[in-house]
Amino acid sequence: MAMILCGADPAWRGAPMRVLSLHTADPSNGNQATAEADFDGYARRGVMSGDFWARKPDGSYTNSQRIVFPTCLSTSSNIITHVAVGLDLVGAGQVLYVGPLSVPFVVMPDHAVTIPPNFLNFTEL
User: Fold this and answer.
1) Could you tell me how far CA 123 lies from the centroid of its own chain?
2) What is the pLDDT of residues 75-94, one digit of tens each?
3) Considering the entire predicted model, what is its pTM?
């Protein structure tokens, strides 16, 4: 908001990486740890800024490449409803954007979470 309203450039803007996190509910009013997936083996995924993202005709952005999260080592599962773009690989990092999934998916034991290209959709509010 400071960048838009006051012309202040946020320190993270030039960073070469953004961090994706999986969520079981909308983390918009929290941070990267809010409603975050908690299956054994889970870890956030860093993705490169720039060419990793593709702008769609409607002005939203999607992932141009496949994203692979670690294999679920739990005997239980998570239902993933949202993916967030943030800044930190661990902890309560800042959420920049949240993309609700049009179809939630279940993380099953012994399966890696793989998000195909053009699956995510992030829109500026």
Assistant:
1) 13
2) 888 999 999 999 899 999 89
3) 0.87
CA distance 118 to 56: 9
Please give the Cα distance from 65 to 20 (Å, whole number): 13
CA distances in angstroms from 92 to 2, 21, 35, 75, 114, listed in the order given: 21, 11, 11, 26, 24
Could you give the CA distance from residue 27 to residue 33 in angstroms, rounded to a whole number? 8
Q: How many CB atoms lie within 10 A of CB 39?
A: 22
Q: What are phi and psi of 90, to 5 degrees?
A: -145, 160
Query: What strands, in cross-sheet order, belong to the sheet with 45-48?
Result: 45-48, 17-23, 78-86, 95-107
